[in-house]
Amino acid sequence: MNMLDDEDEQSFHATRAGYSHLSDVEWDAVERMGSTMGIHAVSVMLEALNRDAQHATIAKFIQNELDAEREKVALLHQQGSQQAELLREQGAQQFELLRQQQAAAGGSMHSRRPETLKIDISKYRGVEEDSLLRWFVELDDARARRIDDGDMQVAFAQSNLAGRAKTWALGLKLHDPYAFESLEVFKSRLRQTFEPPRAEFRARTELLKLKRGKRGVHAYAQHIRHLTSCISSNPVDDHSLVSMFMQGLADGPVKTHMFRLELDSLEQAISIAEQEDFSLRQARASSTSYRQPIRYDNGGPEPMELCYVESEKARSTGYKKLQRCNRCQKTGHYAYECSAPRPVSRDTGRSDRPPMRKGQGRGSAVGAKTQQRDGPSKNGQDQ
Description:
- By secondary structure, this protein is an all-alpha fold.
- Helices cover about 65% and strands about 0% of the residues.
- It has helices spanning about 1-15, 25-35, 40-50, 50-110, 130-145, 150-160, 165-175, 185-195, 200-210, 215-230, 240-250, 255-260, 265-290, 305-320, 360-375, 380.
- The chain is elongated.
- This is CCHC-type domain-containing protein.
């Protein structure tokens, strides 16, 4: 078989001189056609075609080869783009994975500093005005944030003492450095020392007899809240608190409205009472601020109210009775109505006094007056 192919190829190359009208490029294309279709088939095809048809067939074959190469190049370019995109995605994933590993390694080596929250609580002085239970609530809220160590909790609690409470704590620490083993021990000893005896019993008794009085609803509610917070071991149930709150209210629209409702908690009762009290105060303010519109005179006749005239007359008469006369110094009339005689002026007898000359002093006037009264002097008589 191979021997036949070699013979055909030799005979095909031998016929190159018979196709001298074909160029080298075209003959290379004919050889490629022979390697694809077979040499015998190509020789038969060329012999059956004229020269123009041979040129056209070879040109079409070359064009088909070019199109096939372009498709291969486009396919390779598409595959290359896909490969590049895939490599880019893989590189990004590897970079992100490496960054996470570095962050985890850095976090394990350097622990992140915990966020701090600054909370300021009031100082407990150990006086009767300070509520120990309320101070314990502030202390628990502050230490629950970041303070987990027992010794730090005790130190934080001691730093918020003042007055005689701080003096008491420092005295115990000086006597026994381990006096406060934990925060619970510190609270217990502080309560035994500074909490009033039977404080809950006294708060419960005051709560039972509490009345609103002249206070506002808000102040009354705040007092009830304070007394309720002082009863911690055996707290009063909500229905009893609601009953105490409603009984302590003053008689009026607020209390009447409260008794029409079914309330389940003290806070609900306080909220409704404050709303009703605010509405009542607003209604009173609106009614007192009302002013009757001014009526202007239109020039026509107007009805006269005799009762108003009589009341004005009586009022003027009563006012007149309180006035004092400037002539007789008696009450009940004015000076122009007074029947007492007109008082005489004190300067009536001195009206004929000679006028004082210019340049004459007080001493000269006195001397002249004395001379007129005593007569001529002795010196004048002798003369």
